[in-house]
Amino acid sequence: xxxxxxxxxxxxxxxxxxxxxxxxxxxxxxxxxxxxxxxxxxxxxxxxxxxxxxxxxxxxxxxxxxxxxxxxxxxxxxxxxxxxxxxxxxxxxxxxxxxxxxxxxxxxxxxxxxxxxxxxxxxxxxxxxxxxxxxxxxxxxxxxxxxxxxxxxxxxxxxxxxxxxxxxxxxxxxxxxxxxxxxxxxxxxxxxxxxxxxxxxxxxxxxxxxxxxxxxxxxxxxxxxxxxxxxxxxxxxxxxxxxxxxxxxxxxxxxxxxxxxxxxxxxxxxxxxxxxxxxxxxxxxxxxxxxxxxxxxxxxxxxxxxxxxxxxxxxxxxxxxxxxxxxxxxxxxxxxxxxxxxxxxxxxxxxxxxxxxxxxxxxxxxxxxxxxxxxxxxxxxxxxxxxxxxxxxxxxx
Length: 397
What we know:
The chain is an alpha/beta fold. It has helices spanning about 5-30, 210-220, 230-240, 255, 260-280, 305-315, 335-345, 360-375; strands at about 35, 40-45, 55-60, 65, 70, 80-90, 95-105, 110-115, 120-125, 135, 150, 160-170, 175-185, 195-200, 225, 245, 285, 320, 325, 350-355, 380.
């Protein structure tokens, strides 16, 4: 064998050894690294939800390596129901590995169902009940509104508390429900010859205490339509001595209270919270500033009283106007005038709801004479309750 042949043979052997070595190295390396998913191999995702991919990791000899070389070829489209496959690939030189994660897009969300109107409604016996219904939306089903089922009923001929349950189920079987309570009350029976003494705008530190003393002296219970003014201890005393605590407003500022329906209820909620904090009881008796017939509310929100007289009832309140006024917030500046305005308008032929203000000194000073007149002339003095005669005015706005 000549020298050239020897050289060729040596080159061939070296080449074969190199191939074998590379193959051995490749086999060793291929079996020493792996591509593993982080998290579960199958993920269930809600329709149109955002997918946060936990990714995958490359391990070489048990250690994380070459993370920058992993790539995923397709994004997850959660707007398409069904199964999708997410592929993770690792490529380095001649070495390559794939792994896969299954993504299942399902409708997992229940319909959103909201009551139209209030969750608590109040009406009188034989009054027409119109169900405001519900509004339903779903992230997948477009015709979900037509699938609402209502259970329960309202018998307007019978006094009682009724519950309506609205339930909606989408095509995926997800369900949601809401409930409405309807209270059917007996109509207020007007008691002839009854006098309801009512006081607005307090409590007041200078006058309310004396008024309570006079009421206590004769064992008479009255009704106080309170505001956010005055000391808590007087409000608590009114409650502790058995008087009815009713809601007037928190601010008594017409421009704020009658700015909108929402503004009214925001204010009403504040005075309701105050009464609850002091007494531990939620009052459901209210009186509108200026009464339901006031026209000044139109300066701030046209038609608001027509809405409020309905909505307060839907929320479980009863509002009380009056049919006897002391005029102590107007022309009656003396105790004699207050006494005269009240007593000359009392009647044995109907219930008498008397408007006074416990913040007025002339009312404080006239009250004992008014009580004695009522007792001497056979009138019954009572506090207002939910079934008392409400003396509603015609609504003018």
